[in-house]
């Protein structure tokens, strides 16, 4: 995250309670919480005006926001992060939730893929969110890879390995991807994939990105020095190349360079999307809660991800289980469910090899 999250210890007792009540009220109802509501809930009896002042201070710190004029407050992503890190109380897992997930392992004749699918469905039903189950990674060299568009926010990656093993994984693609861009991604990967594992393939694409970026920098510098273009906001995140007077460029070579830069930028953007695709299949995260834009792969408006890894018999992380839902998830309830499900999947993988 670009912003530095304030520490909960930096708030005094009154500010901490007001902040906690606002976040808990929002997570419970999804509605802004006003000062009048808080006057009835706070341990310390204070006036609505005092509470409004405290809420304004919290808003100044970037922890709360006011969605409408004269309305109550809701937590920002920064505020939710501080709440999760410093104030979240994780409850015990409900017995009925545990039973529903345990039921998925009722059939001993299931193969692992079928069991994982049943566990994912149960997890989605229990949490009322979208479940995410990343399966154990296969380390054989890749023979062929395809991306299949399933809808605006769902796609399928088909991995065919040199040893004949085939894996199908559903994932949420980076925003803006089309069937055409996915075909281009697959074509590029297949051109360099043979003989490489997923990990090796990710590194090869990263090297290609660095190479293309250097070409862009070199061509852009030549254009800037010739006076045909300028850098806007150099050194900042909003830095970009601005072409001046394109209709008055003095030679065909300048126009050729501009076209090459445009192609290079397009190419670089597509390869970065490819890395995002592969990261979904290759990277195993630790136990984490991602809120909103903290993870760009799940940064759809108002989305959060609660994810926990699972391990095999050798205590090696081989996959992950997660739940995707709105930022106002009941984190205290969801966290133990995801944690328990990850442990269950780990035992399943260990017992069935």
TrEMBL record:
Taxonomic path: Bacteria, Pseudomonadati, Pseudomonadota, Alphaproteobacteria, Rhodobacterales
Keywords, sorted A to Z: Repressor, Stress response, Transcription, Transcription regulation
GO molecular function terms attached to this record: DNA binding
Cross-referenced Pfam families: HrcA
NCBIfam families tied to this protein: hrcA
A GO BP entry: negative regulation of DNA-templated transcription
Family: Belongs to the HrcA family.
Domain Heat-inducible transcription repressor HrcA C-terminal: 115-335
Function of the protein: Negative regulator of class I heat shock genes (grpE-dnaK-dnaJ and groELS operons). Prevents heat-shock induction of these operons.
Coiled coil feature spans: none
Family matches, as InterPro entries: GAF-like_dom_sf (IPR029016), HrcA (IPR002571), HrcA_C (IPR021153), WH-like_DNA-bd_sf (IPR036388), WH_DNA-bd_sf (IPR036390), WHTH_transcript_rep_HrcA_IDD (IPR023120)
Gene: hrcA
Designated name of the protein: Heat-inducible transcription repressor HrcA
Species in which this protein is naturally found: Salibaculum griseiflavum
